[in-house]
Write a structure and sequence with these properties.
The complex is a heterodimer of chains A (about 300) and B (about 400). Helix content of chain A is about 70%, strand content about 0%. Chain A has about 300 residues and is an all-alpha fold. Chain A has a single domain, classed as ABC transporter involved in vitamin B12 uptake, BtuC (Orthogonal Bundle). A two-stranded antiparallel sheet of chain A has the order 1-2. Chain B folds into 2 domains: about 80 residues; about 325 residues, ABC transporter involved in vitamin B12 uptake, BtuC (Orthogonal Bundle). Helices cover about 80% and strands about 0% of the residues of chain B. The chains are: A mainly alpha (about 300), B mainly alpha (about 400).
């Protein structure tokens, strides 16, 4: 039994689940914004990065860890709200490339400001739990207390989002505003407020992700922290379907596991190449995602 | 007096004035010869291009003549500019080709690519790899091969584009841009890994050019001049072909796809094919720009073609005017001189040039311009200028 648990396959699966949880969270935050406002947010990595700098930077003034996490989340809510009100709202109803370009500009500005204020030197965040793998009979099992914490956090966030959307009045209003804004407005839903809330939620989910990624000993917090992760998150969201939160999360986790095997059995360069190939093939087969039920657009 | 004779007389007069100026002003005989050649080319092209029959019935020929005049003038000017200026202009011209491709993709199909820096890298490395294996290939052939390789990469990525709407395609090209460094290091035996590649031999200026401008001594100056002129001619050809494409039946079909894809399908425009062609052309143009950069630098480094370049490309074309031809030229100039302008700004505001803020100023300014342009004037500098001129003409009509 010990031999099985420390075997290469199981280690890869566990490591893949940890990465996949991160990809799933990024994908989820993209889906939240896409469903609410039909904008693919290319600054989805940069906005939480900025919030994380604001919050976790307080660690240097010896604020307690969990307070800093709380401040990061509050900063993320604020950034999400301000972004939607100031940058995104004027763009509704414009050609679909306009919000893409604005969000790319926002990405450039946020990364440049972060580098100007906090420099590009990676800043290491303390992991709240040990990042060293548990051992069984002297062999690492591919799972550490910290990576277990990552997976549990990711699942908890996803679960909270599902509960919010399915079982609360607020979630119903959020869904209604996304699907039928005019009707919702007639029925008294504050649609504008719901759209803002969608962006706030999404940025907060992103902040959780950014803190988890930056706590990894090898990366640390940098202005470009989320660029690569964003690509994987987008691939997961596109494969699963930008309209489907469950699809995005599922394909994020699956992607993490598949890519862990690719990295282990081929090499680390092959990871992003295989991911790109998966994206191309899946978009050719099902342009709206493998896990959505929405009808395909013919033209 | 027939139009031909009238235009001929004007052209001849211009030529005589140019020759007289050349003979009195030019310090050396060779400079005078160069001036005369340049003036003769411009006068002949101007004559042909301005003929009424050509202008009304052969617009392609008229555009060709306009291209000849512009390239002629630019090539002439480069002979008298300093080496750094030439190099800067040529870098900007290479970028302008890339921008033209992207401008076309958006202007013609309503799609956008965030991965054109990577397609540029494909062309840049294709040139370097080919030159290292076949050192004797003429430059033109090497450039064409690089363009074909770029187009093939574009086809591979563009295939899903047949059914994709804007955001998906943008995301996919972004993933390609992020993946590109990994592609390069996966094939490091070809691409030289982190250090990149050197070209086996430098392009040296031919004797007639050296004799014409620099009294027979081939130097670094003449080599830079030669490379600059190659880039300028290639830019002229690229812009000429694109101007024709914009005006052609295919170009009109593509604009219809951008404005209303359902209507385009109804009148018989094959949507998937049109979208893929637009994407492939934009990739091929990016590859040409990258190939020219490799020639110009005599080397290629993977660090140049990172994600940041792709974003910069998007920024300068939006500022210049996406969907327009002149926007690509404006964007090229903006790109070529942004570093100088920012350095000047830093020097005059007393910012610490080694400080964090000064090193990030580029990103802050480009990001801000990108957002402001898209929010308030989505057609960029070129589109705004066109809009203002149209409004003034309209106001004049009403008086």
């Amino acid at each position: 039994m010990d031999g099985f648990l420390t075997s290469r396959v199981v280690t890869d699966i566990l490591g893949g689940l940890t990465n996949g949880a991160i990809y799933g969270l990024v994908a989820l935050s993209l889906v939240l914004v896409w469903r609410a406002t039909r904008v693919l947010n290319f600054a989805q990595g940069a906005m939480p990065m900025f919030a994380t700098y604001l919050g976790m930077g307080l660690l240097s003034y010896s604020w307690p860890y969990w307070v800093c996490v709380g401040v990061s989340l509050v900063a993320a809510f604020a950034i999400g709200a301000v972004t939607e009100r100031v940058l995104v709202r004027p763009l509704y109803g414009k050609p679909e490339i306009n919000p893409i370009v604005v969000m790319v500009g926002y990405l450039i500005i946020l990364e440049a400001f972060a580098a100007a204020i906090w420099s590009t030197t990676p800043r290491s965040l303390p992991a709240p739990f040990s990042p060293i793998d548990w051992r069984l009979g002297g062999q690492p099992v591919g799972l550490s207390p910290f990576s277990l914490f990552e997976v549990v956090t990711a699942l908890a966030v996803m679960g909270a989002i599902v509960v919010l959307f399915r079982y609360t009045r607020l979630g119903l209003q959020l869904r209604a505003s996304a699907l039928a804004p005019e009707v919702s407005r007639l029925l008294g839903v504050r649609v504008g407020r719901m759209l803002t809330l969608g962006w706030m939620l999404s940025t907060a989910v992103g902040a959780v992700t950014a803190i988890l990624v930056a706590s990894n000993f090898f990366t640390g917090l940098t202005p470009q922290l989320m660029d690569g992760i964003f690509a994987f998150g987008f691939i997961a969201a596109a494969v699963g379907g930008l309209d489907s939160p469950v699809g995005a999360v599922t394909s994020g986790i699956a992607l993490g596991v598949v890519l862990q095997f690719v990295g282990d059995y081929l090499n680390s360069n092959a990871i992003i190449l295989v991911a790109l190939a998966i994206l191309i093939v899946s978009l050719m087969v099902r342009p709206n995602g493998l896990l959505t039920r929405s009808a395909a657009r013919r033209v | 007096m027939s139009p031909v004779a009238r235009h001929g007389a004007v052209a001849l007069g211009a030529l005589v004035v140019a020759v007289a100026l050349a003979l009195t002003l030019a310090p050396r005989a060779s400079d005078a010869v160069a001036l005369v050649v340049v003036a003769a080319v411009a006068a002949a092209a101007g004559l042909v291009g301005s003929l009424p029959t050509v202008r009304t019935e052969h617009p392609a020929l008229a555009r060709a003549m306009l291209t000849v005049i512009l390239v002629d003038a630019v090539v002439f000017a480069t002979a008298f500019l300093s080496v750094p200026t030439d190099f800067n202009l040529a870098t900007g011209a290479g970028m302008a080709i890339v921008l033209l491709g992207l401008s076309f993709l958006t202007g013609a199909s309503g799609q956008i690519s965030i991965g054109n820096g990577a397609f540029m890298g494909v062309g840049a490395f294709a040139t370097a790899i080919w030159a290292n294996h076949h050192a004797t290939t003429p430059i033109v052939v090497t450039l064409l091969i690089s363009v074909v390789v770029g187009a093939l990469f574009g086809l591979l990525l563009g295939l899903p584009a047949t059914r994709l709407r804007g955001p998906y395609l943008a995301g996919m090209t972004l993933a390609f841009a992020v993946a590109f460094p990994a592609i390069l290091s996966s094939f490091s035996s070809w691409t030289g890994g982190d250090s990149g590649l050197q070209l086996p031999n430098t392009a040296t200026a031919p004797h007639w050019l050296v004799g014409l401008f620099h009294a027979g001594t081939p130097t670094l100056t003449t080599d830079t001049l030669w490379l600059t002129d190659i880039v300028m001619v290639a830019t002229g050809v690229a812009f000429f072909l694109m101007a024709n494409l914009f005006a052609s039946r295919t170009g009109r079909a593509m604009r219809l796809v951008r404005d209303n894809d359902v209507a385009a399908e109804l009148v018989g425009v094959p949507l998937p094919r049109t979208r893929v062609i637009a994407f492939v052309i934009s990739a091929a143009y990016a590859a040409l720009g990258g190939a020219l950069w490799t020639l110009l630098n005599n080397s290629v480094s993977p660090a140049t073609y990172g994600f940041a370049l792709s974003i910069t490309i998007l920024a300068v074309i939006v500022i210049g005017g996406i969907g327009t031809i002149s926007g690509a030229i404006i964007g090229g100039v903006v790109y070529a001189y942004s570093t100088n302008v920012i350095a000047w700004f830093v020097a005059h505001t007393g910012l610490n040039p080694q400080g964090n803020l000064a090193s990030q100023l580029n990103g802050i300014i480009f990001g801000a311009l990108l957002i402001v342009t898209m929010m308030f004037s989505p057609m960029g500098i070129a589109g705004t200028y066109r809009h203002l001129r149209a409004r003034r003409a309209h106001a004049r009509e009403r008086e």
